[in-house]
């Protein structure tokens, strides 16, 4: 392999690694949001929209965009219309398809809030 192809391959691999690292979130959010006074019911189980939005901003926005429109990751604007809450939760907890797993990184309450919030996007 000539040196030009080696440099091109190295550049492509470096970009891939950077893109994968950006999707990792880089934030460990094991507690609530600190916005207890700003809670709005988000659906099942008494979770809050504010909590879910904070978890999303801290962990998901780099791949799914501020408007949930996607980018590196898929569009989530109407994810609740095509996926069940159970499937959404499974994806958050276990990752897959380029997405990191968040079970063990996020608290169960944060995963529930995010699941309910995304499932309501129809």
């Amino acid at each position: 392999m000539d040196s030009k192809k080696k440099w091109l391959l190295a550049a492509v691999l470096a970009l891939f690694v950077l893109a994968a690292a950006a999707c990792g979130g880089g934030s460990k959010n094991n507690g609530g949001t600190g916005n207890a006074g700003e809670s709005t019911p988000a659906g099942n189980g008494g979770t809050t929209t504010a909590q879910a939005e904070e978890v999303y901003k801290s962990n998901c926005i780099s791949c799914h965009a501020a408007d949930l429109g996607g980018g590196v990751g898929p569009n989530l604007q109407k994810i609740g219309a095509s996926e069940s809450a159970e499937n959404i939760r499974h994806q958050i907890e276990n990752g897959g398809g380029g997405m990191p797993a968040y079970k063990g990184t996020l608290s169960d309450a944060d995963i529930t809030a995010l699941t309910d919030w995304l499932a309501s996007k129809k």
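The chain has six helices and no strands. Residues 80 and 119 are 4 Å apart (CA to CA).
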